[in-house]
Fold this sequence. Notes:
18 helices; alpha/beta; 43% helix; Rossmann fold; 14% strand; nine-stranded mixed sheet; Ferritin; 12 strands
Amino acid sequence: MQVMNPQSSALVHKVWNYAHVLKDDGLAFMDYTEQITYLLFLKMVGEKRTGGGEIPSRYSWDALKNIDNNAKRLERYHQGLHKLSEYPGLIGLIFTKPQSKINDPAKLHLLIQMIDSEDWSRLDVDVKGEVYEGLLARNADDVRGGAGQYFTPRPVIRAIVEVIRPQQMTRISDPACGTGGFLLAAFEYLDRRTKNAKEATFLRTRALHGIDLVPNVARLCAMNLFLHGVGADHKHPVIKICDSLESKAEPVDMVLTNPPFGKKSSFTIIGADGSNHTDKISYEREDFWATTSNKQLNFVQHVHSMLNESGRAAVVVPDNVLFEGGAGEKIRRALLQQCDVHTLLRLPTGIWYSPGVKANVLFFDKKPMAKSPATKEMWVYDLRSDRNFSLRQNPITPEDLTDFVHSYRADDPTQRKETAHFRRFKYSEIMARDKANLDIQWQRATVTAIKDETPQELMKEILKDLEEAMREFANAESEINRSS
């Protein structure tokens, strides 16, 4: 989240008013977000006239708003949702399994009037991102319920893209794309740098690919990309709804991702070590180094498997990925051996919708197999110590990441210099640490960062950790009983 300009704030306030029209009917957060985005999408397609030919005139925005009879308008709207779900490409995905929760003809008429009063295409903002972010910020109950996991702070995304510098004519993927923050940032970065029609066509049809497990979230991503003119080639789907971890993906040049928070997965991945927990649903990934039910560790392995021989990645991971033993240690050692894990950005607390989250960004480049480790040294930038952020009072801004972007030296990493916040650690130093622990800090930890968290929120986090520990104990006991 970042400080919104007045235009953006007015936009969010306007959509929040739309939301209240539907929330009065008892709809949950994702339900009314879904209904509003259907209508906003039809309105913006009508305004832009880009790809508008894919929307039959019978179900277009102009057709809906010009029907005089409210009951007939509602019937046409319901028909349109189902008809559009049968279309190929992004249009079909956007309207996947549509369920119109608007059953009051008068309310549909009111929403259409409210939305039609604004010329959305002239707004110089990422409309879907602003709407979704604004609704999250105003809807605390749903944020605590988990909706906030789909949003990565935009200044963080843009800083990552700025330093990793995507290249033209390359394939970029996000296996946990959410609402499309990383894909859109990569698109905007490359769109400003296209030199010819060939590069522009590749960028809009082949360069980007995202996967998400949650249909409503993938729908928002698809809408965002479609409205940016991405994904017109139906032979090359840009967004897919499925579980990324189920199978090995087609190799790509770059992965930018923030896998969902939450340590446990309902699946255990069976890695190359062959170990398995038979009391869990499992699927086999021979390309993984280790077996674990830790979702983030599995995503780290999956990202590595997605990269081609010289692929690059930036992955947001929680602290436990840096220090967890067992499978965690095995995965870290393998990653350091087979990839150049050159940079670690320690992100501050207070920038996420879920309270107490401690996360980092791992930057690594895949290298050909060799006897010597690919990682020679790892640079760690500490943006956490002595920094206090909160979503409302002190949100993170692009300026807070300026020093990191400068220190990264994307133009020539050999010119990096150590500072109070940026330190170099040799491979031998990392290997000398217990369990190849990457949870490195040298500055005084910020103790005031948790002031904004209520005792109830802290208790919730403690209970969550205890429940997780009890599940681990139960799994261990089960394994011991089976082997005895």
